[in-house]
Design goal:
The chain is 20% helix and 33% strand. It has 699 residues and is an alpha+beta fold. It has an eight-stranded mixed β-sheet, sandwiched between helices. A four-stranded antiparallel β-sheet has the order 3-4-5-6.
């Protein structure tokens, strides 16, 4: 199965231990964390030579294990690329005299930002991502926002994979960038109404968005004005335009508490105005309309959120009045506001819906759909005074559709259906759902995709995908890539485990902190339910997750590895205890509400220690494991999967192999460019096929 000329690297053990709360923890692979990691994020060439040598040895071993799948990987890439409409474009979004859209050119890796006159005419390319990416190993747009007078576009890009975005300003007519250069930002921009300045968030040396600045065009960044600074290192700060476009919203918070401030864009010199003071555990987000705010919040015990109103002149908590009361089990994900309508996105029992409220009459109606599992998203608009709502719909069998919906007449207009150039017949596939019963009786939804000719006799391989953290739900949406597995006989399954909000905010609360292990046990319960229903069999399942879903993979490998043929863990958050103990890391203080603070709390320390994948590697057999990392990843640092694989290889008593593949030129999102990213998907899929014995048959 592997090339014996390249043996598995053995990471040297360099004894190190620490004691906290009277508990001593050994960490013999701590040396894999570069002492100068902040500098490495900015300049990967500064990586310690010993660490680089080890990561490159792991890459060589990964190549020896999976190198024989190169023809299969190439075939998978060709298939996946064949499903991409190469000269694709978004539906133009009108704003004043123009309609703005993004597109790709045939063979292009990166987006082009374009516009046409509102009622049609010649297009203008404002930003050419392919041209801007030339000469960079990595290139990713942070975004682009045109000014209110439509003369300029503030745009940002990251050329390291470290998610430090540099903002530049482009002249739409001339096609040239102005002298302005604003560095080390999160990429977002909000223009003042006079188009002479913009607001942005600067990242600090620990990669935290703590400060809001205002940049005046034609000046140096060193002359920028500090508008707001968050003092709590556990809070992240972002800026966006309000729904009416009247305000810059400074939104701050962690995973449990939030607070917002408003800057009138007609008076950008005015100080930010607080909406409602932060209260621990209370979250809110605002939408504005005239002299009124509509606020989405979990205040007053509204676990699944409600919508309240407040006067703009006095928006503090005491003046909040219920508009859409709390309804247990119906989770209000988001709300958007137009001149005459309130739109809210709701989810109940892992199925979303869009509900529209006429603000004059109070009458409500929902946009309905027929499929048993699907994904739905409101797409927003540049324009406030409109009756048109744009939304996207897809299911695991139905490619994405973009619809325009008249909120008054209720007429639907299909604006775009995702094209699959190589062909796709939804009737060839079946999407369905089952419920898995967890150990404590909880009913866990599982969304399934398989070919119509599938036979439920237990022989099929199955890929089980999961995440289950931060309240992120996993939508049952369309993915052209996964057809490459399904067409080879795989069942593709998504486990809607606790820790996500698939069944409401309470579903999330049941999978965090001291209840985190519910997420892992739910995933194993889903695997067992799929086996019991003859969708697959033991050791025919490949688990797949990334980031916090990679932590899920590590924990499941420790707790129920015998169920799996293979595990794919992309940028896996597996060294949970050490990361939560290091308050200099970018995400650590903001993550304490999610996982607990092991620095302050012995209880939290013991809880995390009990499940942290790295700390619970045991002397027992493990399934084959592929860990994928990015050297410049500021979210899940490269040393987490490196340490995990090193300890696994030194400790496990059989099974495997376990391999680590580090992209030495990318961060959390993997390779940049829409086609280069397919190379990494192909590696994961080739590994999955190989783990169940189908790699050679599929090449």
């Amino acid at each position: 199965m592997t090339d014996s000329s390249t043996s598995a690297p053995v990471a040297p053990r360099r004894p190190y231990s620490f004691t906290r709360h009277g508990i001593t923890v050994s960490d013999d692979y701590a040396w894999l964390k570069d002492a100068r990691w902040q500098e490495v994020l900015h300049d990967p060439s500064l990586l310690d030579a010993d660490i680089r040598a080890y990561l490159e040895a792991e890459n060589a071993y990964a190549e020896s294990v999976l190198g024989h799948t190169a023809p299969l990987q190439k075939k998978l890439v060709a298939e996946m690329r064949g499903r991409i409409k190469e000269d694709d474009s978004s539906v133009p979004s009108p704003d004043g005299p123009y309609a703005y859209f993004r597109k790709y050119r045939e063979g292009g890796q990166h987006e082009l930002f374009c516009r046409t006159p509102r009622n049609g005419g010649a297009e203008t390319i404002g930003l050419d991502g392919d041209a801007l990416a030339r000469g960079h190993e990595y290139f990713k747009f942070g975004g682009s926002r045109h000014s209110h007078d439509h003369k300029l576009a503030a745009w940002s890009a990251d050329t390291k994979g470290s998610e430090y975005f540099t903002i530049r300003v482009r002249d739409w007519d001339g096609g040239n960038d102005l002298v302005d250069l604003v560095e080390e930002t999160d990429g977002g921009v909000v223009w003042s109404r006079d188009c002479k300045s913009f607001f942005y968030v600067k990242l600090d040396d620990n990669h935290r968005p703590m400060q809001v600045w205002r940049h005046k065009l034609g000046t140096n960044q060193s002359d920028d004005l500090l508008v707001y600074e968050e003092k709590d290192t556990g809070w992240f700060t972002h800026v966006h335009e309000s729904t009416s476009g009247r305000f810059c919203v400074i939104a701050g918070g962690d995973h449990e508490t939030s607070e917002q401030r408003l800057i009138d864009l007609d008076d950008p010199d005015a100080p930010p105005r607080l909406v409602a003071a932060r209260e621990n555990g209370v979250q809110y987000s605002i939408a504005d309309r005239g002299d009124e705010l509509l606020i989405l919040t979990n205040a007053d015990g509204a676990i699944d959120f409600k919508i309240v109103t407040a006067p703009l002149a006095a928006p503090e908590r005491a003046n909040w009045r219920d508009l859409i009361p709390h309804r247990a089990g119906i989770y209000v994900l988001d709300h958007d506001l137009y001149a005459g309508h309130l739109v809210r996105l709701e989810r109940a029992n892992a199925l979303p819906s869009i509900v529209i409220r006429d603000l004059k009459s109070g009458e409500e109606h929902a946009i309905a759909f027929d499929e048993g599992a699907y994904s739905l998203d409101a797409m927003g608009s540049y324009e406030f005074d409109t009756t048109n709502l744009r939304f996207a719909y897809s299911s695991m069998t139905t490619p994405s559709e973009v619809w325009d919906y008249d909120m008054v007449t209720r007429a639907r207009t299909l604006r775009k259906r995702q094209e699959i150039p190589s062909g796709h017949n939804p009737a060839d596939y079946v999407t369905t759902r089952i419920m898995a019963k967890a150990d404590d009786g909880a009913e866990v939804p599982v969304s399934l995709l398989h070919r119509r000719d599938f036979k439920a006799d237990g022989s099929a391989p199955l890929l089980l995908y999961g995440y289950g953290s931060y309240g992120h739900a996993m939508p049952a949406s369309f993915s052209a890539n996964r057809l490459s597995l399904v067409d080879r006989g795989f069942v593709y399954a998504i486990a809607h485990i606790r820790g996500g909000t698939d069944k409401g905010w309470g579903w999330y609360l049941q999978g965090k902190r001291e209840k985190k292990t519910n997420s892992f046990d739910d995933f194993s319960a889903c695997a067992r339910a799929l086996i019991a229903a003859n969708y697959t069999s033991e050791k025919r399942i490949v688990g797949h997750g990334g980031s916090a879903g990679g932590m899920l993979m590590g924990a499941v490998a420790n707790r129920a590895g015998e169920l799996f043929a293979g595990i794919v863990a992309e940028v896996p958050f597996v060294d949970v205890l050490n990361t939560m103990l290091d308050d200099s890391l970018p995400l650590t203080p903001p993550e304490w509400p999610e996982w607990g603070n092991p620095i302050e709390s012995e209880k939290d320390f013991r809880t995390i220690l009990s499940y942290s994948p790295y700390d619970n590697v045991a002397a027992k057999p493990y399934p084959a494991i592929l860990a994928m990392a990015g050297l410049t990843d500021p979210r899940v640092t490269y040393w987490e999967p490196a340490k995990w694989i090193a300890r696994l290889r030194a400790t496990m008593t059989g099974g495997g192999p376990v391999v680590l593949r580090t992209n030495m030129g990318a961060g959390h999102g993997g390779a940049s460019g829409r086609f280069n990213r397919l190379d990494e998907v192909a590696i994961a899929y080739a590994f999955a096929l190989w783990a169940v014995g189908l790699a050679d048959r599929s090449a």
